Hints:
The complex is a heterodimer. Chain A is α+β, with helices and mostly antiparallel strands. Chain A is built from 19 helices and 20 strands. Chain A has 3 domains: 57-245, no CATH class; 394-479 and 668-811, no CATH class; 485-634, no CATH class. Chain A has helices at residues 4-15, 17-54, 69-76, 217-233, 252-297, 302-343, 354-381, 384-388, 409-423, 430-439, 443-478, 495-503, 612-618, 637-653, 664-707, 709-717, 722-763, 774-801, 804-808; strands at residues 60-67, 81-96, 103-110, 122-126, 135-138, 152-156, 162-172, 186-190, 203-210, 238-243, 485-494, 508-522, 528-536, 548-551, 561-565, 580-585, 588-598, 606-609, 624-632, 658-663. In chain A, strands 2-3-8-5-7-6 form a 6-stranded mixed beta barrel. In chain A, strands 12-13-18-15-17-16 form a 6-stranded mixed β-barrel. In chain A, a hairpin with a 6-residue loop joins strand 2 and strand 3. Residues 390-401 of chain A have low confidence and may be disordered. Helix content of chain B is 35%, strand content 28%. Chain B contains 12 helices and 18 strands. Chain B is elongated. In chain B, 47% of the residues are buried. The model of chain B is unreliable at 1-6 (pLDDT under 50). Classes of the chains: A alpha+beta, B alpha+beta.
Amino acid sequence: MMRPRWRKVFHDLxxxxxRTLLVVFSIAVGVFSIGVIVGAYVIISNDMSQSYxxxxxxxxxxxTGPFDDSLVSTIQNVRGVNDAEGRTVLSLRARIKGxxxxxxxxxxxxxxxxxxNINLLNIDEGTNxxxxxxxxxxxxxxxxxxxxxxxxxxxxxxxxTIKELPVVGIVQDASTAAGDFIANPFVYITVNTLPYLxxxxxxxxxxxxxxxxxxxxxxxxTMLTVIRDKTEQSGVSVFHSRFAKTxxxxxxxxVQAILGILLALGILILFxxxxxxxxxxxxxxxxxxxxxxxxxxxxxxxxxxxxxxMVLILSFCLIALGIAVPLGGQGAYGLAAFIADQIxxxxxxxxxxxxxxxxxxVVGLAVPLMAGFIPVLNGSKISVVRALSDNQxxxxxxxxxxxxxxxxxxxxxxxxxxKLLSKRNIHIPRPLxxxxxxxxxxxxxxxxxxxxxxxAGAIFIAVFNVRVTLFDYLDGIADYFMxxxxxDFDQPYRVKDITxxxxxxxxxxxxxxxxxxxxxxxxxxESLAENITILAPPSDSTMVTPNLIAGRWLIPGDExxxxxxxxxxxxxxxxxxGDKIRIKIYGKKEEWTVVGIFKFVPQEGTFxxxxxxxxxxxxxxxxxxxSYRIMLENHDKKNQKAMGVVIDDYFQxxxxxxxxxxxGDSTLKSASESLDIxxxxxxxxxxxxxxxxxxxxxxxxxxxxxERTREIGVMRSIGAVDRAIMQTVIIEGMAIxxxxxxxxxxxxxxxxxxxxxxxxxxxxESPIQVIFTTTGFLIWFLVVxxxxxxxxxxxxxxxxxxxxxxxxxxx
Amino acid sequence: MxxxxxxxxPAIEMQKVQKVxxxxxxxxxxxxxxxxxLAQGEFVSIVGKSGSGKSxxxxxxxxxxHPTGGNVIVNGVNVHTMNESTRSLWRGNNLGIVFQxxxxxxxLTLQENVMLPMDFVNKYDFDERPKRAMExxxxxxxxxxxxKLPTTVxxxxxxxxxxxxxxxxxxxxxxxxxxxxxxxxxxxxxxxxLFDHLVRSGKTIVMVTHDPSLTERTSRTVVISDGExxxxxxxxxxxxxxHHQLLDxxxxxxxxxxxxxxxxxxxxxxxxxxxxxxxxNVDISLRxxxxxxxxxxxxxxxxxFGEIELTGSGRSIxxxxxxxxxxxxxxxxxxxxxxxxxASSQITEEAIQNVVRHRLEENRSxxxxxxxxxx
Lengths: 811, 375
């Protein structure tokens, strides 16, 4: 038979269900959050590299002129090479048969799908091995095109004819162009399908995996040089080359930032939830002091009381763990899957993360037991006489108190302030005074609640600041992409001709023909330092407003001159404007002058600007261009889109080979995509902390009301109507919210700097100028007031529903 | 401060008020169909043992507790037809409550505590409220403590402040639950003097107390026992009986009414009751052989007659008539019950014997006087 004292513990557990639920909920919130965060952290950091490396990503990739199997065999025989594959990548416009929406897709042709060993394709649906005249799409296609397996894609060839390919599968390609947000979505066909699309069955991409040291940068660099040289020796031009580690996803740095923030969030939530638990257990013990007195009266020792309540807390913990552990496991996988989907890699499957499980159990047991120990110890030490006195809950409200007390410091300040106001004939209504002064009565609880809400507020505000900081940075980048519409052709056309035609279209303000070139920066030892993409606007271009950090911009007459993006510092940290840099351009090694260095979002490789006049000359495209930048009279997005369609139709109908028409924001959209993931993630984090914060406030207000039922009864007895009672509680909650806002606003400044540094260092690899916005401060002000009002509403309704009979507890 | 209500309406009227509690152990009748009327300007104490239902009775008047049956009418308003919130507002305007444990809000100064009811019921101009609160605190002698918090003054001062708060909205009725129960004698005196002052200024005060020294200072005492009211006349007549005995007597009373001048008992008539006067005056007289009537004494409400006969010969030794001015209402205790009570309470028996001796002496003197000095 259960001993009476353990029966009391059991009774305490089940008799007051709402209180048990409040305590269990407080513990479960923390355990769940920690489970989600630790679980997601472990799953992502494991799976991202594992899933990436399990797809056998290429260590070396060359974009080349056309080649055939013989080059592939040559490279396969190079010492240190594990495998090599040739593929064809071409860009075509496509649409779902029967629809009008054209999208530019990268078509990848592979010779034998049954024998792929590099950049593997994971099946999402259907097959990953298309037959001739069939297509398999990469899942990214689905973002812009709702194509299903069984539907047919229509591809528009350079000559305008349309060819059909049925879609037989959807795959995930986590390796090809991983981390390259600007790349078009992929469609996979067989090499034998190429003639059907009027293309030669020749490769233009070479993918190579290495046999050893495939995660060593120096070795990778060396092998890249060897393979590039071998390729060029075979008479194949190399336009672009890159290397990548096997075990490191190109987006690892962004994900590292996310994981870092996740961990910070985990620690924060741990603190928040412990303060919530401490608050709740304190209130519980206050309610139980009388019973403790009775038990001591009938002979219970301090240790026995201590044991009973620690077992009660332990029971709360176990129930909370029972709820939070399985939910936390699901949540962890859900969050990991969300991030994986954003970054485009596959998880290794659902599983329980042992570390998360251990952390959950430790946190779920240790935090409440630690948080509850001091109140339990104090409670167990209470004297019988005090425990049994009429109202032992509130020291300051002890009605039978005989001893005259002195005012506390806070009381003195508050009284002086009210006196000062009343001397100036400003009288605060008493119900309002009750709310304000109640706010400071339970100082320990107030501090814990304020801590929670302040942290939530500071993070919330900081997220908005960081968001503005990042977008301001991107806006600066947008100055390099000022055109409203970009018109690309499959072949160069005379600038004068295109200019005349475009300017004749109503609504067009200006047009510029730009040239492009690819080059490679070369180290003194002749090894490749960096790929350089050269954009060449006319030297008097009005469509670039560079953000120079050194030197000057290009001027008419500049020859063999480049303005380089700051990424060049990674390979040439001491580069100064006026210095010469050795580059390989169109097969020739030359020395060009660096005239200036500008700020830019990090891309794979370095961006550079040259003058159209010079670049078009060396590419033998004088007065002609593939790519045109068009400025409209009206820059809004809707007009850009409409004009894009008009311009596209115009040139299609006039018989020009249009490759693609992009609206102005599309380039920026791609560039900001990785930031969007981070911003969304930060916002989710801010909202989570806000929810935990407001839960803390609800708990605090609930406990305050519980402890002040007697005072509420007194207010009722002297004329307070429901509304007046509710107002006192809600205004108190809002006062706490207001104070937390003020503290959060101050704390948000260092957190903004910290968060901005974490994100910019992870993504841009350099700190960026922090911008503050009032938006976050204002939104949080409203949010925290609404949250505090809502958090107080339930306790306030409870307070108003109490009858005086209940709260004054006569006879 | 004057009472705005006409004295014809009772300040408080309870009609068949019942309160029943049910729990696992059974049903408990805390109030068993009480009828009670308190007039305007009365200072009434409610006494009773612990658990007798006196605080429940007060809670019925203040609207803090709900009756299971019956009506409670305060200043013409049926208190329990309102919802909780409306009743709060009504209470703020019409009833001042003084609690045993003062129940001042600890976060407000004494002056702010006094202003709070005015804020809640929105009485007096906002700017006038501090002035009025100070006036009330001055009335209770706390003007110098006005800006202090309750915890920084003595308990007596806290109760004075609670009384000032009860007066804040100038309610016609003050209900006090053991207002001196937690105070020393000196502080209790201050409080009761304050109540006296308030009653003189027209307030009706109803107070629950354990303290017999306080009941002496009230104009009326209502005794409650086991959820029933003890007949007030019986309670006053037999101060030495236990509440249980008084209640027993109350259950065994019979009512008698007489017109002014009407005979109640005639000399030598057989007497079966002890009569207690509820209202009106009663003349005790003797007739000489010539038929001349000599009034021996006049008895007032709460006095009794018939005890000589019941403890003696059983025949009336004098004539008893209702006075000529007012009708008379009596309650009677049957001989057997009366003797049973005397047998069970020696102290009461002794008190009755003293009365008998005294009255017999009076009777004898009167007869002598009537007979020209002969015994």
